[in-house]
Amino acid sequence: MIIRMENPARLAKIDLHLIKVLHTLLLTHSVSTSALRLGMHQPAVSTALARLRELTGDPILVRAGRAMVPTDTARALLAPATDILSAAERLFSGHAATRFEPASSTRVFRVAASDYLDPQFLPLLVAGIKREAPLSGIEILPLSADFDYRQRLAAGEIDLVVGNWLSPPADLHIGRLFQDEIVCLVAARHPAVRRGWTAEKYLACDHIAPTPTHPGARGIIDELLAQSGLRRSISVRCPHFALTPAMVSDSLLVLTTGRLFCTSFTASLPVRIVPCPVPMPALKYYQLWHDRTQQSAACKWLRDQVRRVASRLR
Q1: What domains can be seen in the chain, in order of their start residue?
Q2: Average pLDDT over every residue of 15-38
Q3: Of the residues 68, 149, 232, 267, which has the fewest C-beta atoms closer than 10 A?
Q4: Is-contact 290 112, C-beta < 8 A?
């Protein structure tokens, strides 16, 4: 909406301090008392009153016996002056940016999330958001090879990214969520279930892994193996991580990922969790956001919802 000023030259002569002087004069009906309240010298308040009289074309205060009283025009200025000062206080104190009412909000939250998390993470997050903000919308976007989440965050196209990284990008705000033990998911009939295995046997197996986020990229597991000078044989790549347990269940493939994810499938599929014979640090999950939403009340609320769900998984 474009607001057109009828007299921009007059507006240029008005500042917030002048409105504060007007407001105080209308409350006290006195130049000297206003000077005390404002911490100003009396001649400065008199000068401000002269400017106000010039701008309004009205005397503002007139004498009635030994006292001063506001004119009818001046009385009508009290309410808008109060509104302007209140709005300015909200604007510069940050209250406008920190107010968010979930119950009445119709905002659409956009979250990009890795599906390496516990399969219950996104359902729990959506349920929590809709429970407290029933009028809101939610868009879940995948962290795929062609999804530049840093650019999308910077452009304001998404509010938040949730996933795991060895080293989260330093140019984004980082919220640590939880960490998860790295284990292997194999079919119930896999030799490792019956006989155990060594690092050598593990590396020699056929492995299944997610499709790289960009050409030439290595996933976290392969990065960790490379740090120890090791390499596994990946025979299957799949962009749909939630489907990999079913692929494992009827083959000799090995899926290496977090225990939380694997645990969700042991009751519904003929699969087992076995220790990873190559020592690796825990997977670390984070939420990332751009500086543009750092002070957004709605996005702060969203990040709180993510932390709440993550604490339940943890």
Answers
A1: 8-93 (1.10.10.10), 102-178+284-313 (3.40.190.10), 182-281 (3.40.190.10)
A2: 90
A3: 267
A4: no
